[in-house]
Each structure stands twice: as C-alpha cells, then as structure tokens.
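Z., the sequence and structure:
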Amino acid sequence: MNLSGKAVSYWQKKLGIELQQILVITDDLALPLGKLRLRGKGSDAGHNGLKNINELLQTTEYPRLRFGIGSDFKKDEQVKFVLNRWSESEFEIVKKAMEKASQTIEQFTTIGIERTMNEVNQDK
C-alpha cells in the first residue's frame, strides 16, 4: 500500500480521470476506531501511501476518505497493530464504519463531495 501512487497515477492518466473524481480511501491512526473523515484535499499526515500518491500525482488536490483505526499500540509496534486482526468488539465498530464508508462512497459519486462532507464529518 505504500506504493499505491503507482496505481492511482496509472489509472488516472489511462482513463483521463479528473483529480476531483478520484477518491482515495486510507486507514488513519490519528482517528479513533471507526471514525470517518472526508476531505477534498490535504496533507499526507505522515501516511506513506498518501505520500506516494502525492509524489506521483504531484499534488495533494484530490479527495480522500480516512478510516480511523485508532492508535492503541505499544511503541515500535505500529505495523503489527495495523496488520493484526480486530477483536470481536473492535470488529463490530469496524463493521458499522464500513457500512457508513460504503454509503459515503455512494454519496460522493451521486451528490458530490461538499454535501457528502457536510454529512460525514459531523461529530455525532
């Protein structure tokens, strides 16, 4: 996933997709488990996959949906945490968030990013 910019750049050019029509979905350690955050542009926030996309697209001006996975891990165990299985209680949270993410993707494609951001990014 750290080299995901190759695929994004390839398909963006091959299909002539405008940057505003791309939606990159990524995990985010800075967000609590199950929290979603939709943005129209932004920094990589230390995410290696986004760094690679930014580098190969030569811009940060593309939409991204961040999926919170939390940061409940010991020092130097980030990779293990990210690749580990969810506990039963975590899985229930993730399952609900995946349903919401699916709805968000559909809304992004049908009503646009601005209206979708207004709904998704509200802290409820």
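The chain has five helices and three strands. The chain has one domain: 5-120.

Let me know what you think.
H.
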